[in-house]
Amino acid sequence: MSETTGNPSISTTMDYHKLSIQNRKCKIVKRTQFTKMKHEKAKEKKSRRKKAAEMREVLGDAAPPKPVPHTTESLRPPDLTSVEADDEEVAADAQNDEFAKYFNCERTPKILITTNKKSSLETRKLLDEIVNVMPNSEYVKRGKVDMKDLVKEAIEREYSHVVVINEDMKKPNSIIVSHLPEGPTATFRLTSVKLKKQLKRHGNATRHRPEVILNNFKTRLGHTVGRMLGSLFHMDPEFRGRNVVTFHNQRDFIFFRRHRYIFKKNARVGLQELGPRLTLKLRRLQKGTFDTTGGEYEWYYNHKQMDVNRRTFFL
User: Fold this and answer.
1) Which of 69, 128, 177, 205 lies 20 to 30 angstroms, CA to CA, from 164?
2) Is 46 exposed, middle or buried (0-12, 13-18, 19+ CB in 10 A)?
3) Residue 40, CB half-sphere, CA atoms under 13 Å: how many?
């Protein structure tokens, strides 16, 4: 009951309707009434938001703060390895880690990109677009060369990274990124791949060096992974190309996007997606270069221990 009018509240009415719908035997009537109930609930929510916005506009600075919505990320439990953007210790470590020379523009990344030994057409199409994303990369045909021998040869030729695209059932399913000559090496699961031609109203990319955005990497592990992905690109972008590469972490899924921003009238900016579109999920982070037998792992994914609580994230 409402305290002011003595009439039933909206939530009480909704519960009553829901209970009466559940008791209905006819599926058509049940579906119709449920759709009507959802429409009424959405209408009431919209009205409530409108009143709150009008109240904030009237009160101005004295208005109460907006309530924080309950999402999986907002209910994330505290993590001891979480870092803040202005953490001095993290900033000091970043100046001395293996990726500092790339972010300080002291070294230009030189990337060798290859595939598994017998790659399919789908994998080669993705490879062509990734080579186009990184102007400082070069495709080398794998042939029958083992991964360890490939890494040794890449070190001799002074490459800074090796990127390997693997596949399963003739579709790309994982990416290995190895920093040379001393590591680390990260293995990512690859999903939701969309090439440029599969995107609506896509643009044609240029060979300008893109700007790089690393977003929402909040832990020590995420900080390392983000800097590793950022080191694949030159940190001196060519702004004339207006190209932006984004690695956005959300719930341990890293979404890769590439856009061109377009200036419009009235200080508005538009975005045109250039492709490709990928989703990465970290599986392993290994010290040193690629070594499946004697390698030491900094972190690896164990679903039996790590999937217990869905609100726990590691990046």
Assistant:
1) 205
2) exposed
3) 13
